[in-house]
Amino acid sequence: ASNSFAWRSDSMNVPSVRTVPVQPRSPDELLPHFAEAVRTPTSERHLEGILATIDPRIRSLRLDYADKDPFISVDLGLSERIPLPQAGQGVYRMTSILSDLLGARSNVCLIDEIERGLHFSVLKQVWRGVAQVALQLGVQIFATTHSRECLEAAYEVLGGEDPGGHIDFAVIQLIRSRNGVEGRVLDEASIEAAVRNEIELR
């Protein structure tokens, strides 16, 4: 399903919006996004550094070629580099997310089911990486999740590990009502109370 956004203002610039779908892109679809993301050495190091916190074996990623067909390969310290899909679903998913963030340079990025394909043990690293890129590029992130572990990891990183107060973190809870679906915004204090008292926020 495609998403459409409308924005009209006579005094403001139209924001650029990027959507990271829940279904992973095919390797061919991912290629141009990855190529744009690693166009500068700084972005390339950033992407590789974040991925290495998720899988410490990762040394580098690059565009490779076989029979004139390009593909993304990963150096895991083995005798040969391997195609990205063979590095695991979590690494593939994060490469896709980071390629969108670093390559598109959008004002707003929507990440659907951010935890999809990721082990719960790496969720804090994922949020740290996403926050780092968001702050560096000045992009606003909206992420959906159905995972309590993912929400708790987001709260611990975005709420608890931000001593400078650079990150604005809120949860938009969607609630079904007679009139359809209503949104309720929870601030950090409300999120903390819900997490501490194990109140369901999904």
Tally of helical segments: 6
Record the strand order, biggest sheet.
Answer: 1-5-6
Q: Into which percentage range does the β-strand content fall?
A: 15-25%
Task: Summarize model confidence as the mean pLDDT.
Answer: 83
Order of helices and strands: EHHEEEHEHEHEEH
Note the gap between the termini: 22 Å
What is the radius of gyration? 18 Å
Largest sheet: 3 strands, parallel
Q: What's the total count of β strands?
A: 8
Q: Class by helix and strand content?
A: alpha/beta
Helix content: 25-40%
The best one-word shape is: globular
List low-pLDDT spans: 1-11
Briefly characterize the structure:
With 202 residues, the protein is an alpha/beta fold. The chain is 38% helix and 21% strand.
Overview of this protein structure:
By secondary structure, this protein is α/β, with parallel strands linked by helices. It is 38% helix and 21% strand. It contains six helices and eight strands, in the order E-H-H-E-E-E-H-E-H-E-H-E-E-H. The protein has helices spanning 27-37, 41-54, 89-104, 123-137, 148-159, 188-196; strands at residues 17-20, 60-66, 69-75, 82-83, 108-111, 140-143, 171-177, 180-186. Strands 1-5-6 form a three-stranded parallel β-sheet, covered by helices on one side. A three-stranded antiparallel β-sheet has the order 2-3-4, with helices on one face. Strand 2 (60-66) and strand 3 form a beta hairpin. Helix 2 runs antiparallel to helix 3, helix 3 (89-104) runs parallel beside helix 4 (123-137) and helix 4 packs across helix 5. The protein starts with 16 loop residues before the first strand and ends in a 6-residue tail after the last helix. Mean pLDDT is 83; it is low at 1-11.
